[in-house]
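During the reporting period the student researcher (J.K.) took over the structure-prediction task from the postdoctoral fellow and processed the backlog of single-chain submissions. One of the processed entries is reproduced below for the supervisory committee.
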Amino acid sequence: MSAFFTLWRREIAAYFLSPIAYVMMMFFLVIMGFSFWLLANVLAQGVAGVSIMRELFDSFFFWITTLTLVPVLTMRLFAEEKRSGTIETLMTAPVSDAAVVLAKYFGALSFYMMIWAPTILYVVVLRAFSPLAAPPDLGPIAASYLGTLLIGAFYLAIGLMCSAMTRNQIVAAIVCFALLCVLFFGGFIAFIARVDTVREIANYFCSLAHMRDFVRGVVDTRPVVFYLSGAALMLFLAIKLVEARKWK
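J.K. obtained the following structure tokens:
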């Protein structure tokens, strides 16, 4: 367990030593800040029918930042280790392959959560300046952050698996982005399919539909199980990819 925490701290430190991480953090905060500014202007104009949580957590800005952020955060996890040759030192250390994979994964997940942490100020501002009769409900807010965490956890696991496949960071990022796009846009079949069975299957994989439930405060166990089991599967595949190096 001590080896895991040592590797986890190493991954966190690596993010703060990387200029790309700071660029992506700035990119994320600028995009989400712009989204919040638009929302504040809409609310100030008194436009009816505006969902605060949907505008923050289910908008174009939310999805474009998520689909862009995850490949950049995960592309270096194993690819850079392979390129620089430090993977050999790491894998010969007295630590299991699973511990290495999990430490890198939770390091990326921790940094992902750190990036999202400042957005809590948006909620504080909305509650402070909203009319006393209708402040934002904390239930949908908590569910929205839960959905963001679950989706991020699954997507980051996919990115980690992609990074374990190659020694080129750019290739890892492109493959990850392609898989995320297939997964995300494939869920739109749920909105256009005419066969009920196809629609139900696609709806089970549809991140957009899941997030819309979360922003309404609805926490269904099915998407929770889907994202947790999907992340576990991707981590299992990543561990097997790392173990496969020993047989080369």
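The committee noted the following: The two ends are 28 Å apart (CA to CA).
J.K. will present the remaining backlog at the next meeting.
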